[in-house]
Each structure stands twice: as C-alpha cells, then as structure tokens.
Please model this.
Amino acid sequence: MTAPALDIKQAWTARELTHELQLFRAQFSPGGGHVAAVGLDGRVHVWRLEDEEKITLDGHRTWASSLVFHPDGKRLFTADYHGVVHCWDFAGATQPMWTIAEADRDNVRALVVSPDGRQLISAGDDRVIKVWDCATGAPVTRIEGHAECIFSLAISPDGKHLVSGDLLGVIRQWQVGSWKAERQLDAALLHTRKDTFLADVGGVRSLAFSSDGKRLAAGGMKEAKSNAFCPGKPIVLVFDWASGKQETELGVKGKSDGPFNALCFLEDGSLVGHTEILHAASELTFWDPTRPEPLHSIPNGSAYDLSLHPDGRQLLVPTYVSGGSSGNGAQKKHRENYVPNRTSLKIFNLFARPEAKPE
Model:
C-alpha cells in the first residue's frame, strides 16, 4: 500500500491514548506496532496499537525519566531519577531481564542504543557518559569531559559519531567504538546565567540528526528571565555537520516560553520540535531548517518527547493535560478536590485527512 504524501501543514490528531498521571517519555517500537511510555508513576506502560491492549511493568521505585527501544524490537531500556536502568522483554516479561543499579548518581536524562545494537549509552546528572553491554548490562567504558549535567544524546546516521549536549550549551562529539573526543560545537546561546541567578538555566535539551547526516539540530531556549520557573525564548540551533558551524536559529510562531525538549527530522528534510509550557500555550512546530520562521505550528499542551513511526507518517507526542493545578502536588486546602495532571499520548498523522466517502 502506497503511503500518503507527507504534508505537515495538514497534520491532524488521529488517535489518543490516555493515562491518569503525567508521562514524560514515549516511543514507537521499531516495528511500529507498540507504544511505550514512562513518567511519574515509575511504571512502564506498553500499548499494542492494533487493539490498544495495555500491559504495565513494575520495576522503578521513583519517577522514570528515559526510555529507548533496542533495534531488534524485542527489548526496551528504561531509566529513572535514582540512576537505575532496567532492560525489559517488553512483549511479556513481568521482571527486568537485567538491571544497572547505579548508571548515574542521580537522574539518567538520556539513553541511546548503538546502531549495531550491541551497546547502550546513558548520561545524566553526574556529567559522565557511560557505555553498557546491551546483552548483560555490564559496563563497557566511561566517557568524561562535560563540566555540567548532560541532557541529550544522539548518534549520527552513519553510526560513527556520538554527540552529547549539556547544561552549559556545550555539544561534544565522540568517536563511536574508541569513544575518543573529536570536537566541540558551540550552543552557548541555549544557556543563561545572570548575576542575579542562583543557578544555570537552559542547556542543550534535545539533539537530532537529519537522515542524510548533513545537519545536527540542538533544541532549548535562550534569554531565560529567571532561575525560578525559568521562562525564556524557545529556539533550535541548526549546525552544518561537516563544518560544525551554526547555520540557522529557528524560532516559534506562538508564545511558548519553555525549551524544545524533543526534535526529529522528517524524510523530506523538514524538522519538527515541541516546547513545554509555563505561562503560555505550547506548540508542535515544523520548519524548513534553512529558514528561521516556522512552516507550520499546532497549539498543544507541554510535551517532553517525540517519536516518528517507522512509516514516517505518524508522530507520537506525549502531551501534558492539566488537572487544574500548575504543579503535581495537592495544596494544603481542598486536598480532597485535587485532580492530578494527566497525559494524552497523541498520534498525529502527517498528511491530509482522507476525504469522507459519500454514503
């Protein structure tokens, strides 16, 4: 069956899977038949898209922060805010296949798997990239060099290079296999530290390569106004991969004031990203990466992840749904009326709606 023509300006919400608490990360399985998601309840939720049958895996004792599928489509790796990583047979096992008890001293913020499926790479708050054996969870090596916590990881399409982005707006490039440092890219615009701030704000929250490997996109925000709720101007920096020089700074159409936490390139070379919300409407944004103004934007709640279906025509967005509070805790008064924030796992079709058939 021929896939419909990609048309981002006609993108529409085709499906929604709901969950009663907030989920941070969600991904399509490599075969496209399942969706996995993790978040506040520490559980791993897997939906079979054919009939929306759901299984839940218990293993994390705190908020789950990251997940990634193995290329074989049978294994799933998840991580949490206590630095624990689990490997699951997501299709049916109720217990992890193996566990890394301390992959980070605190939050594991990013996971990727090498293209050959042999190694799992993790990074987070302790500033060290760690490489693990996918089959056993045994440590392979440690990669040091970042001065602050690491938010994002990505591997180049040719499988030869790993990039990592940190709080200070530093992107480091490493050689896959030898894990030697190769170069550094400047994304300092994504970092803010004023004299009145008590902490650094911003960082390289997301990284994505174009499918041809010619561009690297780095998402975050600039010009943070404070280090309390941390509103700023969401932007994406696009780098020419060969030279390492910045080509474009991409902005938003709406009034989003949180960073771009997730990015992915589509098959036509266009780029899609999602912001989070503070005091303004968030949005799903599409660009021609050579031009600063968006091609298209869809208002939406906050989202911290994006996943492109293997067919290239469906985009998964784990969307925050407010329960009426700006936080996730009940206030002192009216605790009995508190409704927690929820999640809508929205699947957008990236093509025009089929015309209704006449009756």
